[in-house]
Amino acid sequence: MLPYHTPLSPAQQKSLGIDPPAPVAMADKVRFSELDVLRHVNNAVYMNWFERLRIRYTQNCGLSRYAGRGTDPRIVIRSGAIHYREEMRMDEDYVVTCGCTAFRTTSFSLHQELWSDGRLRATLDCVLVLLNHNGQGRFAIPDHVRRHFLETDGACAEC
Q: What is the rounded distance in angstroms from the CA atom of residue 100 to the CA atom of residue 154?
């Protein structure tokens, strides 16, 4: 049985055809409310799925609690490119993955994938920028997050 809403281990990811495994991956199932008039998943829903895991990812790596107060940075998407490879339908199980590929002083790049039935269905590559919690000026990526990007994700530090 595939566990939903729970981070999947590398072994679980590999058993689902996701190899190499991603730093963070979680499963869910397509709901009726996510379908469009053609009875496949609406394209906008993919962005919600990717965002849901992206938020979990930034919490797990210690970048933000998303509590709306304190000194957490504002994390904004500067740019993104989604590639829809194959449609999704009602009741399909899926896994969304997320990992950092590169980072600079105040921004980082993420690669996300959507897998179902052992097939890659969509990808999203995006650049996120960190702003100070009040929205004024840039927020430097903390050292512990930079270490996470390097050691857990295998990301590249860019100049």
A: 8
| Rounded Cα–Cα distance for residues 107 and 140 (Å) | 8
Whole-angstrom Cα distance, residue 141 to residue 15?
Answer: 34
Closest alpha carbon to 117 in 30, 40, 16: 16
Residue with tokens 């790596």: 61
Q: pLDDT tens-digit profile of 10-57?
A: 999 999 999 999 999 999 999 999 999 999 999 999 999 999 999 999
Classify residue 12 by burial, with Cβ atoms within 10 Å: 0-12, 13-18, 19+: middle
68-52-13-78 Cα dihedral, nearest 10 degrees:
-90
Are 95 and 112 in contact by the 8 Å Cβ rule? The answer is: no
Token reading at 48: 């919600």
- Element counts in the chain: helices (H) and strands (E): 3, 6
